[in-house]
Design brief:
The chain has a four-stranded mixed β-sheet with strand order 22-23-1-24. The protein is of the alpha/beta class.
């Protein structure tokens, strides 16, 4: 794709003002694939995982697993073979963890299988505090001894015995916390209850994988999980769910620019809140089992939204919907309740002529007749997508710098956009 090493200096040049027409295939979900890959640590048998997106975060995860002795290789374009026959060293070093929050997902599986783990505190997008205290609280309830020292989580089971079942009530809804504890509980002695569990579709996808591996999990898709530990898990063949955030991002682009687009391999059932808001904005939607047909023939109407854990409106769709509101008729409010620093894209959209004011955790957006192309800078993964949507809707040329953020979560966005007639070009500096 003509990228520099890791794409660190790449940018997008976006020529805006064109409606979008055509078909695009939705990739596998990054936020489902990452915990599924980490689940390979729970068995010594081979895992065949289909529909894995080719992303920077996936490559980081594979390097991390490989550093522990896991065999990882691509069998086909989007199919991975993994085998953790022998975990040489249950350590996740800072150099591999610093760019990806999801690296913490190796903690539960390593502790369950190896009885000890050393995992660097994670990095990722600078969108706010995302503490791992709920992970640690749950693992300690299951019999782990945990010490945080020099930026690392040092965890081991008491007497190097297996973890044991426990009743865990998380203080907040945490997706990675639920996933970590669920994986750990699969190989624990007895029954573990996780209350206030995250219900995101990606959590459900991981649970279904674990059940296919032989785990015993009740309450999948609810906020109370019951996991009965088993002696061992087996290898399986499994396909990652479609990416609801990528699908939503493309739908926002159609809503902002106009046109008619068919999303193939899209899972509308996981996107209720997003589809409801885009319908309210005027996007016409025809939904089939594996496709979403979207048409936009008018200017969008401004909508108001409040982010919330699933089944509420996803925080990962906030920036993209804000871009739609920027060119909509009327005024919309966007209230962010998940991450305190997730309005950093506002000043970049303002550079393009957007009328946005921020009051606490609420952004007030007054739609304008048109945005103007400008040089902008991506500050995190989803902000990147929001700026691309804004650039597509703007008059003139927009340059989006630091798209290495975007490469963490979108598979070949510039190529997919070109299939819809958009003028998006990757340049290296």
């Amino acid at each position: 794709m003509g990228r520099t090493a890791e794409g660190l200096m790449d940018a997008f040049i976006v020529e805006g003002g064109k409606p979008l027409y055509g078909e695009v295939h939705i990739s596998g979900a990054k936020n489902a694939a990452l915990p599924i890959l980490c689940a390979a640590l729970l068995t010594d048998e081979p895992m065949v995982i289909h529909n894995v997106p080719r992303l920077r975060d996936i490559n980081t995860c594979l390097r991390l697993l490989g550093s522990m002795g896991v065999q990882c290789y691509w069998q086909a374009e989007n199919t991975l073979i993994l085998r953790a026959q022998c975990i040489a060293e249950p350590v996740a070093a800072y150099d591999l963890v610093k760019t990806m929050r999801a690296s913490i997902l190796v903690l539960g599986p390593l502790l369950a299988r190896c009885k000890n783990a050393v995992v660097s505190l994670p990095g990722g997008c600078a969108i706010g505090q995302r503490p791992v205290d709920q992970h640690i609280k749950g693992l300690e309830a299951m019999g782990a001894e945990v010490l945080i020292e020099s930026g690392y989580v040092h965890a081991k089971t008491h007497g190097f015995n297996r973890l044991h079942g426990a009743k865990i009530i998380t203080d907040m809804v945490t997706v990675t916390g639920t996933e970590n504890l669920m994986m750990a509980a699969c190989l624990a002695d007895g029954i573990t209850y996780i209350e206030n569990a995250a219900r995101e579709p990606e959590v459900v996808d991981l649970a279904r994988l674990l059940v296919a591996m032989g785990a015993k999990i009740q309450g999948i898709g609810t906020d109370c999980l019951e996991i009965t530990g088993v002696e061992r898990l087996r290898g399986v063949e499994y396909s990652v769910m479609p990416d609801r955030i990528e699908a939503g991002s493309f739908l926002c682009a159609v809503a902002a620019c106009g046109g008619e687009v068919l999303l193939k391999q899209a899972n509308a059932q996981s996107m209720d809140a997003t589809l409801e808001k885009l319908s309210e904005a005027g996007l016409q939607l025809d939904i089939d089992k594996h496709t979403i047909h979207a048409r936009m023939q008018t200017l969008p109407r401004a909508v108001s939204v409040r982010t919330a854990p699933y089944p509420g409106f996803a925080t990962d769709m906030q920036a993209q919907l804000m871009a739609v509101n920027c060119v909509a008729e009327g005024m919309g409010l966007v209230t962010e309740t998940i991450f305190e620093n997730r309005f950093m894209h506002v000043q970049e959209m303002q550079r393009m002529g957007a009328k946005i004011t921020v009051e606490g955790n609420t952004a007030v957006i007054q739609g304008v007749s048109a945005l103007s192309g400008a040089n902008v800078m991506a500050t995190d993964l989803r902000a990147s997508a929001g700026l691309v949507v804004a650039g597509l809707a703007a008059k003139g040329q927009t340059k989006v710098d630091r798209i290495y953020h975007l490469d963490r979560g979108y598979e070949s966005m510039e190529l997919k956009m070109s299939l819809l007639g958009a003028l998006v070009k990757r340049v290296s500096e």
